[in-house]
Amino acid sequence: MESPVRPLRASVARLHELVRGLDVDQLESPSYASDWSIADVLSHLGSSAVIMRQRLRDARAGVETTLDAQPIWDEWRAKTPRAKADDALSRQEWERVTFNFGPVTVGLEVAVALRLNEHAFHTWDIEVVFDDEARLPLDAAAVIVDNLGFIARFTARPTGDEREVRLRTTHPTRHFTVRLTADTAELLEGDAGEQPDLELPAEAFCRLVYGRLDPEHSPAVEANGEVLNTLRRVFPGP
User: What is the model's pTM?
Assistant: First the structure.
């Protein structure tokens, strides 16, 4: 997987450029994220940055994070996010540090990649309000597409169908299979060695898995509409 650090920094800069000139009415207007205004999305990103920074400090110190997030959420609901600088880490620290996300423990690279996912998608949630043609940046999509399997473990939903759907992405090229049974749904990585049922840009597939590829915001693809409709039900979003 490509390093997520540079795309994350680029996403932060992209977000600041996007919202810098918004007035109060625009900040209070709805975002793409359900039930959240643009200001709510910014508050969420700001508070999660503070929480992530504390998790990083604790991980570097080798102690368990016992942070109470509620006061941070309350504080950030009332203010505009400010720039957060990344701490410089040596490669030795990078490989040593781990994070606990509920029942899952991940390395720093995966933790930063997950932060990139959150930041890039919520930036899109704001941008698409002003531009129906908004897309994820290619550098971010190139990282996100390689950790979709991790996300799908928690978000994919069975539809009652029993079938496999083969997919191929472009920019970058990747291969996936969505395997459905009556009560399970899996996203498998790797080339199935057969003609795909659906081919679409990687950034669009990332949005699909995150529940953000509704018909009004989908690229033109060569596929039976039924395939996309099935996958939209499999991936309703986190």
Answer: 0.74
